[in-house]
Amino acid sequence: DKIFLKNIISDISHQLKTPLSSLIVLNELMLNDRNMDEKTRQEFLSRSLSQLERIEWLIINLLKMARLEAGAIEFQIETIPLIQPVRKALSALDIKIKEKNQNIIINKPDTNILFNGDKDWTAEALINIIKNCIEHTPAKGDIYIHLTESPLFSRIIIKDTGEGIEKKDLPHIFKRFYKGSSSVKAESIGIGLALAKTIVESQKGTVSVKSQRGKGTEFTVTFLKGVI
Predict the structure, then answer these.
(1) Hey, what long-range contacts does 4-8 have (CB within 8 A, 24 or more apart)?
(2) pTM as predicted
(3) Each residue of 192-218: pLDDT tens digit?
C-alpha cells in the first residue's frame, strides 16, 4: 500500500510539473506587461485555460485509476446490449468528432449483441480508446466500430484510418504515461489507454491493439460471457 501510494503521488507530481510551469510563465507575462494588447492577452488566457483543463483531466483520471487499482470500485454488472456503452462513449466525444469532421461508421449497430458488464465504466474505457483514434486520425477521416460475438465472448473492434503506431511502440502503448515516438500531440499525457485497459481487465475482459505505420490502428476489446 505504501509503495502504491508513493507511486501515485510521484506520478501526479511529475505530470503536474509541466502545465503548472506554463501557467506560472503565462501569468507572470500578463502581470508584468501592463501594455499587452488585447489579442495577445486573450491568446495567453486561452492557453492558460487549456493547461487548467489538462490539469483537471489528469487529476480526475489518475484518481479513477488509483481507485480501480486499489479495488475501491464496485462494478454494476448487468446484461445489456453492447451498443449501449458504445453510444454513450460517442455521445461524450461528439464535439471532438464534429471539430475534425470525422465519420464514425458502426458496422453492426443492432441491440442483439449482449454483454455482462458495467455500462458507465465500459463507456469510460471506450471514450479513451475512441479519443485516441480521433486524435491520431486526420480531419474527414473514418473510424469504424464493429460489434461481434461468439458463444464465448462479446467483442468491440475499433479501427481508425490514422497515422498508425510504430512497431517498437506497440508493446508499450497501454503503459501509464507512455508517449509513442510518432506522437503528434506534444501535450498528450499518455494515461487514457492505460485507464481503458485497467477498466476492461477489471471486468475480466481484454484489450489488444494492432497497427501499421501509415495504415491506421485497430483496437479489440473482448468480454468473456462466462462458462457456457
Answers:
(1) 4/69, 4/70, 8/62, 8/66
(2) 0.78
(3) 898 899 999 999 899 999 998 888 999
